[in-house]
Structure to design on (610 residues):
């Protein structure tokens, strides 16, 4: 058997998931010296870019500019895109094994962790990820509805997603209407009666995961005041000692900005974003109709673990916060793929450095790999997935060099193409996406927005006359 | 970023040894698995110490009979243990300051993994590389 990876016999790779990690994995393969690879990338949505399109907030267009990098990778003649093709539904693992030498799963962390408190399922309590998908026009969520007639909302967590949700709830319509926010979300937010948004962190300001530009942005909103309680952003002894020892400038700056907010007086803007620290929800309280009306919070103190991490410990002081809308953003986990070993505890594909492992033998499964959040869990920024994908690709090439790849019966690209189009006649090619992209940008140009998204698969098909 | 993100891609293997086993056996395990330390566990699997190549080298320098000694005689008994939710940065600082190269990770009383200083350095390096890359792209490609 000839070893794949040459002009005459290219290495055939299937990438599942068209998010940033999938592109970084493709790029890493294309850049390896002496290797000829052809790559088919699959996504269950017709559109590419994963969370860059459906996760990154619409008022953060600059972050979305990373798609230009992905487009250059997709322009490689060895690259093909198959949108609207779902792994396990339109194509199975057995299909891929018959057509590719190697498979990489890059499906991200698609579901949220629960808070695990009473009342979590009351009406008005939602995962933040669904709200994000809704305002970004993800087709699976375009029919969702949120009760924006409530005046008070709470966002649990202070990671990037939590901050995005709180900021979008506080933005004025004038700020949002120049973004690529989904039309249905813009219409709903136009009617919003939200007055106060609480952003709840269980630890203190020094431990908060958000970055300084993000906090600074919260203080610069057109029609929302930022409110911070001085006593909650004063450093406790343990945090002060940790900051002084590490001399971490970013943390010092972060605390300085928040303490500056604590000195501000409200300026009478229509909305208030109240950033709270050292509090955890312990219960959501509902009315007779099963609608959340309040949240019970416990006050926390910080304690040091043996490794020096400062963790929240609940006290016996409680308070009640009247809120009619709750978004939880306390962590994410991956969703298992049909036939692919999964590690329940970490919520990732069972793997070692990206090689998928057999759960019984703990040995690598030949030809199957993983990268990104479904490999290591949700951590880091978009670019963190680049070295992560490169680590996986290095394992793939080590395995290729010792002949440990799948032996597909139909490695020719035309065979895979025929199979996929047979299974999903409505699949989207890269050229289809480029046409749709142009249409979206043109719709946006007409109304002074970066793009107006199609938010239903049927509309996307219709736009391409299909 | 926390320790769980390192463990998630390390595979679930943790190499252990019993306290009554010999240093010869410990060395064989270290060599076989190409690792630098073993967690010493009792019959119930509860960690009671850690034995590293450094412990063995130090003993060998003063005692040529080191091979037949029991692991319990030279292991480090006071072990700092981490948890999956521990912050990467705190763990990195603690390991550097206290010169710990191997950190057993326990969750709900169970040994679930071991993190090395190398793992922490690599995770931090990848994090910084990712941030630099993302910032560069925003500067180079950003339109607004």
């Amino acid at each position: 058997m000839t070893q794949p990876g040459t002009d005459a016999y290219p290495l055939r790779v299937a990438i599942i998931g068209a998010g940033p990690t999938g592109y970084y994995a493709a790029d890493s393969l294309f850049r390896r010296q002496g290797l000829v690879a052809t790559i088919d990338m699959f996504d269950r949505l017709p559109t590419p870019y994963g969370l860059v399109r459906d996760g990154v907030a619409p008022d953060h267009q600059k972050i979305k500019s990373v798609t230009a990098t992905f487009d250059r990778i997709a322009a490689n003649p060895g690259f093909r895109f198959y949108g609207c093709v779902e792994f396990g539904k339109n194509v199975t693992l057995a299909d891929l094994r018959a057509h590719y030498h190697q498979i990489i799963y890059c499906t991200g962390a698609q579901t949220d962790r629960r808070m695990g408190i009473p009342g979590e399922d009351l009406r008005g309590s939602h995962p933040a990820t669904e709200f994000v998908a809704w305002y970004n026009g993800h087709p699976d969520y375009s029919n969702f509805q949120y009760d924006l007639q409530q005046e008070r909302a709470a966002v649990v967590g202070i990671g990037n997603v939590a901050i995005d949700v709180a900021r979008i709830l506080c933005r004025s319509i004038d700020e949002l209407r120049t973004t690529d926010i989904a039309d249905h979300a813009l219409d709903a937010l136009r009617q919003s009666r939200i007055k106060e948004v609480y952003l709840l962190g269980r630890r203190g300001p020094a431990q908060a995961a958000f970055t300084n530009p993000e906090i600074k942005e919260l203080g610069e909103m057109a029609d929302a005041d930022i409110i911070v309680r001085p006593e909650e952003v004063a450093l406790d002894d343990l945090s002060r000692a940790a900051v002084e020892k590490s001399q971490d400038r970013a943390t010092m700056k972060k605390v300085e900005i928040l303490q500056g907010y604590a000195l501000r007086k409200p300026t009478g803007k229509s909305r208030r974003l109240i950033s709270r620290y050292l509090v955890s929800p312990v219960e959501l309280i509902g009315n007779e109709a099963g609608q959340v009306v309040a949240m019970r919070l416990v006050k926390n103190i910080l304690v040091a673990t043996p490794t020096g991490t400062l963790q929240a410990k609940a006290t016996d002081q409680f308070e009640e916060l009247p809120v009619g809308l709750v978004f939880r953003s306390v962590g994410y986990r991956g969703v298992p793929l049909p036939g692919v070993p999964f590690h329940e505890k970490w919520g990732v594909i069972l793997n070692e450095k990206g090689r998928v492992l057999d759960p019984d033998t703990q040995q690598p499964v030949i030809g199957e790999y993983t990268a990104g959040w479904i490999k290591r869990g949700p951590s880091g920024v978009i670019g963190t997935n680049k070295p992560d994908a490169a680590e996986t690709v290095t394992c793939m090439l080590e395995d290729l060099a010792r002949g440990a790849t799948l032996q597909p019966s139909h490695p020719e690209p035309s065979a895979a193409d025929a199979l996929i189009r047979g299974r999903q006649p409505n699949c989207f090619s890269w050229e289809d996406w480029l046409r749709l992209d142009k249409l979206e940008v043109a719709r946006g140009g007409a109304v002074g927005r970066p793009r107006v998204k199609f938010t239903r698969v049927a509309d996307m098909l219709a736009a391409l006359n299909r | 970023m926390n320790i769980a993100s390192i463990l998630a891609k390390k595979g679930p293997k943790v190499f252990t040894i019993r306290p009554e086993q010999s240093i010869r056996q410990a060395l064989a395990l270290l060599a076989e698995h190409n690792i630098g330390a073993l967690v010493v566990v009792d019959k119930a699997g509860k960690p009671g110490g850690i034995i590293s190549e450094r412990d063995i080298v130090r003993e060998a320098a003063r005692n040529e009979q080191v091979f037949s000694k029991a692991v319990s005689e030279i292991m480090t008994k006071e072990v700092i243990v981490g948890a999956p939710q521990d912050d990467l940065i705190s763990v990195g600082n603690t390991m550097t300051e206290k010169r710990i190269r191997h950190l057993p990770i326990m969750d709900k009383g169970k040994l679930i993994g071991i993190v090395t200083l190398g793992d922490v350095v690599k995770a931090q390096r990848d994090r910084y590389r990712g941030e630099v890359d993302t910032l560069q792209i925003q500067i180079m490609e950003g339109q607004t």
